[in-house]
Amino acid sequence: MRKTTKNILFFLMFSINALLAQSDKINPANNMMLISGGVYTPLYGEKNNDLKIKVAPFFIDKYAVTNSQFLKFVKENPKWKRSNAKKLFADENYLSNWKSDLELGKNVLPNGPVTNISWFAAKAYCEYYKKRLPSVAEWELVAKASSNQPDGSKDQKYIKQILEWYSRPITEKISPVGSRGKNYWGVYDMHGLIWEWTSDFFSSLVTGESRGDSGLERNLFCGSGSVNASDFKNYPAFMRSAFRSSLKANYTTSNLGFRCVKDYKEERKTK
Predict the structure, then answer these.
(1) What structural domains and CATH numbers belong to the chain?
(2) Spatial contact of 145 and 183, defined as CB atoms under 8 Å apart
(3) How many Cβ atoms are within 10 Å of 25's Cβ, its own excluded?
(4) Geometric angle at alpha carbon 162, from 17 and 126, rounded to 5°
């Protein structure tokens, strides 16, 4: 009897996971992919790699938000025009590559990822469409997937490909979204196109800023770059931590954009 019950439970769990994996069929209208969740091990854990973060299922944009999509948002939310944005929420480089408030620049592709976007602007965009920015845990869970497996963090060939992109200089004209291929989840350009904002990008700061103090990791500084790291060979993760730690919420750069996520439970309630 126990064996039969176990078999039934196994079958149910397998069926649920299979259903979650069919993300195109579940949420095709919003152009988002379903991530069935998992466990994320931060690069810096409280006790080496003992810290595990459980990530619930969620939807994530298949592509980074494009210039044309953000232009539509700006037209419907004039306070986020380049000339209207307050410096407190976006620095002087905000949308600086656009020709004007409502015109894209010469080297700005409509289907290219929007860049020169502050965290505040990205957050406002996501909330306007009833979405949100991904957490570091959610973003990293999706980003560690290679093209054929959910966890490619031990694949040296995969890590090398990421590092090669990080080592290349920024090009004036960024390629269209979807040009860097999709991963195991069907999500495109997690590496090789742009850097992306996360909701809690400041969680790895070591400066004592109040927003990040509760989870402050004191070993994350230059002199002890790999002390207590969960995987000291994961160089791309070190680079992402360093980059995130260098940011403030109103910063904008020419290769920093974003994509949105949506809670799986919330999406299910709307159907």
Answers:
(1) 27-269 (3.90.1580)
(2) yes
(3) 9
(4) 60
* Neighbouring C-beta atoms of residue 135, cutoff 10 Å: 19
Chain-centroid distance, C-alpha 19: 24
Cβ burial, residue 174 (10 Å; 0-12/13-18/19+) = buried
pLDDT digits (tens, 9 = 90+) for 193-235: 999 999 988 765 443 343 444 444 433 333 333 333 444 455 5
Q: CA angle, corner 21, sides to 42 and 41, nearest 5? A: 10
pTM of the model: 0.77
C-alpha 144/C-alpha 244 separation (Å) is 17
Rounded Cα gap, residues 8 and 12, in angstroms: 6
Cβ neighbourhood burial of 17 (10 Å; 0-12, 13-18, 19+): exposed
Beta bridge partners, 39, equal 54
Kindly state the tokens that stand for 36: 């069935």
Do residues 32 and 53 touch, judged by C-beta distance below 8 A? no
- Which residue has tokens 């078999």? 7
Count other C-beta atoms under 10 Å from residue 219's C-beta: 15
d(Cα 210, Cα 169) in Å, to the nearest integer?
34
Provide the phi-psi class of 170: left if phi over 0, else alpha when psi is between -120 and 50, else beta. Answer: beta
Residues 18-70 have pLDDT tens digits of 444 443 434 444 699 999 999 887 765 544 456 788 999 999 999 999 999 99
Q: Does pLDDT of 180 surpass 80?
A: yes
Question: What does the alpha-carbon distance between residue 121 and residue 238 come to, in Å, rounded to a whole number?
Answer: 26
Residue 150 backbone dihedrals phi, psi, to 5 degrees: -70, -20
Query: How far is it, in rounded angstroms, from Cα 159 to Cα 182?
Result: 15
How far apart, in whole angstroms, are the C-alpha atoms of residue 32 and residue 258?
14
